[in-house]
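User: Some background: our group keeps a shared notebook of sequences we're curious about, and every so often someone picks one and asks for a predicted structure to add to the entry. Today it's my turn. The entry only has the sequence so far, pasted here. Could you supply the structure so I can complete it?
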Amino acid sequence: IINALFLGQRQNIDRAIYTNYTNAGAIHILAVSGLHVGIIFLILNFLFKPIERLKKGYLIKTIFLLTTLWGFAVIAGLSASVTRAVTMFSIVAIAVNLKRPTNVYNTLAISIFVILLFKPLFIFDVGFQLSFLAVFAIVAIEPMLNKLWKPKNKLLKIYWQTLTVTISAQFGIIPISLFYFHQFPGLFFISNLVIIPLLGFILGFGILIILLASINVLPQFLADAFGFII
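Assistant: Of course. Here's the predicted structure to add to the notebook entry:
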């Protein structure tokens, strides 16, 4: 499952576990996607923040961000969803850290152009289509849904934003999901209210597990706790 979470390699997952994730509408967390790349981008942006204090720190930070993101993309196999997400966040990283204004529609359009320029057959890739439709739907629909309610409680606000993002993305991919897969995951909305807010914690916990395991100092209770969570 760790391989699937970080690298998108799902071939060794037990069939029963895979089926359970699918039925719960949570199989997307086992495929490296824009959500994963976005969380990793935020973590890296936070970790590299002290570099900004150096001379030309923003430029150095941007280089580190791009190198790390594309290194991750190569390790993850340069799939359509990962390539799209890393391309998009690379443009965002350059614009933000070099103090340039960004427009999400322009960013997505440039991402599509760059990806199809090098891999034109991605236009027929289902994951590529789903990925961009979901992002476009989130950008177009989520702000309107988010205006319907403005909770003051921070926890409620997080869950409301999660719900609006989930609904928006699902609206965007429903047509293609029905066309290609002939099914709609009924538990999608419910499962994602729990899964998406926790995914950042799960990925961070997973990185810690991998680092500790690589130097042979991983406590068994941490490994057991992570296994229970996922």
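Suggested note for the entry: The chain has a mean pLDDT of 75. The CA atoms of residues 17 and 92 lie 36 Å apart.
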